[in-house]
Amino acid sequence: MTDAPAAAAPIPAIAPIVVVPADPQAPAGGAPDAGAAGPAVVDFDAGQNWQSEVYPLKHPFKFAGVTYTSVTIRTPSGADIANYVSGKATPLDFAIQLTGLDSTILLKLHAADYKAITKAALGFLA
User: Fold this and answer.
1) Mind listing the pLDDT tens digit for each residue in 25-64?
2) Can you give the residue ranges of every domain in the chain?
3) CA–CA separation, 25 vs 33, rounded Å?
4) What's the whole-model pTM score?
């Protein structure tokens, strides 16, 4: 009696990838179909900016009559990243650019919150 190798499991079918060409009639920067979800166009001319995230502080504080419970960090622009990578901006400068907060406020943060905020800002460089 010989040992025959076990039959290989069948390979599952994979759905084909369908590439849909862009609609030449769609408005520039818009989604090809009004019902289709696509990335939002950021209109800098209208004062819009990239997305931002709110980071709740683990250690809220009050300074100069203002209570700080969270910090909002916006997504950096190419210029923000270029300044940091070129050495023109320190991690603190980079965090100031992305939060819009004065260095005095950022330096008042509890160490755990400061570390989380700067880590989030520098995370965009990864």
Assistant:
1) 544 544 444 555 778 787 777 777 677 888 999 999 999 9
2) 50-125
3) 10
4) 0.59
